[in-house]
Specification:
Helix content is 41%, strand content 20%. It has 424 residues and is α+β, with helices and mostly antiparallel strands. It has 2 domains: 16-328, BirA Bifunctional Protein, domain 2 (2-Layer Sandwich), CATH 3.30.930; 335-423, 3-Layer(aba) Sandwich (Rossmann fold), CATH 3.40.50.800. Histidyl-adenosine monophosphate (HAM) is lined by residues 79-81, 109, 111, 116-118, 121, 123, 125, 127, 267-268, 286-291, 293, 309-311, 313, 315-316.
Length: 424
């Protein structure tokens, strides 16, 4: 038989790596609670029509699509936003607004595998529906900031733009929606020359080129320059004002490090307003991103509902933690191994293990029936702190031997004092 490998782009997560993921997910759940987001679980498989409706070509071409045995065209979710929008227009349609929903799980995209880019990866996803005010955009940015902060990441910064600026310029230039999306896709890939070739007028080209060239540290300066560039475009001026409102709120209520980048675009087509991504200096890949999408829920047959959201890439956050050697990397806490010296005390030893577990101590039991020397050697190798050795004679006297594997000392301890000994 050949040995089997994981499918290309898919990974097993084992030991410390799995624990790191669990830690990150726990922090995402805590962040959701802190900001009042309710957790929801939606299926991994959705109808192809739903998933491909508004995400855009970029993701549509990378979906895992199949026909189920009932002949339905379905796909593995490439993100959460479509599923959450579906939920909002169905089961949750009468829920009071704003509706704030959090999800975490795996999503699937047929991306070219490389470090930080997988075909199955984890996202923690936040959607805030029903609010069109800049404070809603601000909350999404602030919660991403909080998440990065509680994970202990250092030096992270936000890149923030507004899809309405470019879209309004293109609309005023008479460019249809499909071509607008094509321009934005190219800008997302930084293929600016190709993007500009799709534009009709020289004026429009010059304006876009001006926005592409804008690079400044101070967002207020950048916004002033955007305003000057878009002076002939009324709706682009409104979008710039909206971006300024969001950035003013964000910077007045936090210490977030950010740059405003008007030519910044994202791979998804449903955005209508503010968009952002977050990075650490050591990595070129975004740890998370999101933005405002005011027309998606209506496109799915719901009432017109403004919405803003984001997703964080758990796999990439794990790489970031590793890169910065952050304190939040997994520490696998395995405190104690309980070893019976022979068969006659096996049941007593199992009871002691249960007793310690009931008080929250992480306990392993010697399961291989090894001799004491081998069992201790194994415990040592795996970095356990203590071995509780259950011997016949000691047990009859109501005690056990506790070996401190780090200090290489051992003492006889009364069973009634065992927990205190281990926790001290
Ligand atoms: P996205 O930018 O496509 O946005 O994905 C969010 C995050 O998922 C990225 O910033 C990145 O960290 C991670 N990610 C994306 N592709 C991969 C990959 N192939 N391997 C590993 N990690 C990856 C969305 O998915 C939107 N639904 C976010 C959103 C929610 N916008 C509004 N609401």
């Amino acid at each position: 038989m050949p040995t089997f490998q994981t499918v290309r782009g898919m990974r097993d997560l084992v030991g410390k790596e799995a624990q790191t993921f669990t830690n990150i997910i726990t922090k995402a759940q805590e962040t959701a609670l802190l900001f009042g987001f309710k957790e929801v679980f939606t299926p991994h498989v959705e109808s192809l029509d739903l998933l491909s409706a508004k995400t855009g070509d970029e993701i549509r071409q990378r979906m895992f699509i199949f026909e189920d045995l009932g002949g339905r065209q379905v796909a593995l979710r490439p993100e959460f936003t479509a599923s959450i929008a579906r939920l909002t227009t169905s089961t949750l349609k009468n829920e009071p607004k704003p509706l704030k929903l959090f999800s975490v799980g795996t999503v699937y995209r047929y991306d070219e595998p490389q470090r930080g880019r997988y075909r199955e990866f984890w996202q923690s996803n936040f959607e805030l529906m029903g609010a069109d005010k800049p404070e809603a955009d601000t909350e999404i940015i602030l919660l991403t900031d909080k998440f990065m902060q509680v994970l202990g990441l250092q030096g992270y910064a936000f890149k923030i733009g507004h899809i309405g600026i470019i879209k309004s310029i293109l609309s005023q230039d008479g460019i249809d929606e499909k071509t607008q999306n094509a321009v934005l896709q190219r800008m997302d890939k930084k293929e600016y020359d190709l993007a500009l070739k799709l534009v009709n007028s020289e004026k429009c080209q010059n304006t876009l080129q001006g926005l592409i060239d804008l690079k400044g540290k101070d967002w207020r300066d950048t916004l002033e320059q955007i305003n000057a560039l878009v002076s002939g475009y009324e709706k682009a001026k409104d979008a710039t004002k909206n971006l300024a409102d969001v950035l003013t709120l964000v910077t007045s209520s936090s210490e977030i490090s950010l740059t405003a980048e008007p030519a910044f675009a994202r791979g998804l087509e449903y955005y209508t307003g503010m968009i952002f991504e977050v990075y650490i200096p050591q990595l070129e890949i975004a740890l998370g991103g999101g933005g405002r999408y005011n027309r998606l829920i209506e496109a799915f047959g719901g009432e017109s509902t403004p919405a803003v959201g984001c997703a964080h890439g758990v796999d990439r956050v794990a790489i970031a933690l590793q890169t910065q050697n952050a304190a939040y990397l997994a520490k696998v806490e395995r405190d104690v191994v309980v070893i019976p010296v022979n068969e006659s005390v096996k049941v007593d030893a199992l009871k002691i293990a249960q007793l310690l577990r009931s008080r929250g101590v992480s306990v392993e039991f010697e399961l291989m029936g090894r001799k004491m020397g081998k069992a201790l050697e194994d415990a040592d190798k795996r970095g356990l702190d203590y071995a509780v050795i259950v011997g016949e004679r000691e047990f009859k006297e109501g005690s056990v031997v506790v070996k401190d594997l780090k200090k290489r000392e051992q003492v006889t301890v009364l069973l009634s004092e065992l927990f205190e000994k281990i926790k001290s």
